[in-house]
Specification:
The protein is α/β, with parallel strands linked by helices. It folds into two domains: 150 residues, P-loop containing nucleotide triphosphate hydrolases (Rossmann fold), CATH 3.40.50; 47 residues, no CATH class. It contains nine helices and seven strands; from the N terminus they run βαβαααβαβαββααβα. The protein has a five-stranded parallel β-sheet, sandwiched between helices. The chain has a two-stranded antiparallel ribbon with strand order 5-6. Helix 1 packs across helix 9, helix 2 packs across helix 3 and helix 4 runs parallel beside helix 5. The longest helix has 15 residues. The chain is globular and about 60 Å long. Bound molecules: zinc ion. Zinc ion (ZN) binds next to loops.
């Protein structure tokens, strides 16, 4: 078993790249959110535990997430390749994943870090615009409206959601820097880190990742 880990700031394009690489390798793409929903739906022991936290409005603790990954590995064949997107998120999760891997005779790595400068992250994350009248969505970089700031469908003035305001985005990037960026050092020390330039389009990023994974 092999567990490939994807690292990168919000807006770096981890999810998009993970879907493409999972198809190319092939590997099973595991995003934390999808894994949680699946385990809850299937009513596995870890899924039930997670549900009790979610129902109470609390965060699902790391120990439950690790149990869930354990269930996933238990149900998989020894030749499985996984691509983890969104886990680990901090050093203690990385340590727990390493321990679990030993138990299952699985190899963790490579850890692919998709690197994007802060300026571009801010543009990508802050570029979403929505129409308050008809709900149409736009993006200043990837899906710009025909007239700047105006809805193509109903000509209403577009707005930026609270989640996409610069203050909120700055906070998300700070949380990443504090908790997840140390993982780059963690995997570097283990000799597993592969840095990839994430500033290009999705095809270019996927090609660059395939290069370093091979
Ligand atoms: Zn509209």
């Amino acid at each position: 078993m092999q567990i490939i880990v994807f690292l990168g700031a919000p807006g770096a394009g981890k999810g998009t790249a993970a879907v493409r690489i999972a198809e190319k390798l092939p590997a099973k793409h595991i995003s934390t959110g999808a894994m949680l929903r699946e385990a809850v739906k299937n009513g596995t022991p870890a899924g039930l535990a997670a549900k009790s936290y979610m129902d109470a409005g609390s965060l699902v603790p790391d120990s439950v997430l690790i149990d869930m990954i354990g269930e996933l590995l238990t149900a998989s064949t020894p030749d499985s390749v996984f691509l983890f997107d969104g886990f680990p998120r901090n050093e203690s999760q990385a340590a727990a994943l390493d321990e679990l891997a030993v138990k299952f005779n699985a190899e963790v790595g490579p850890a692919v870090c998709i690197d994007v400068c802060e300026e571009l992250l801010l543009k990508r994350l802050g570029g979403r615009r929505v129409c308050p009248a008809c709900g149409a969505g736009f993006h200043v970089l990837s899906l710009p409206p025909k007239v700047e700031g105006v809805c193509d469908v109903c000509q209403a003035k577009l707005i930026t959601r609270a989640d996409d305001q610069p203050e909120t985005i700055k906070h998300r990037l700070e949380v990443y820097e504090e908790q997840t960026a140390p993982l780059i050092e963690w995997y570097k020390k283990a000799g597993k880190l592969r840095m990839v330039d994430g500033s290009g389009d999705a095809d270019a990023v996927a090609d660059a990742i395939m290069e370093v994974i091979r």
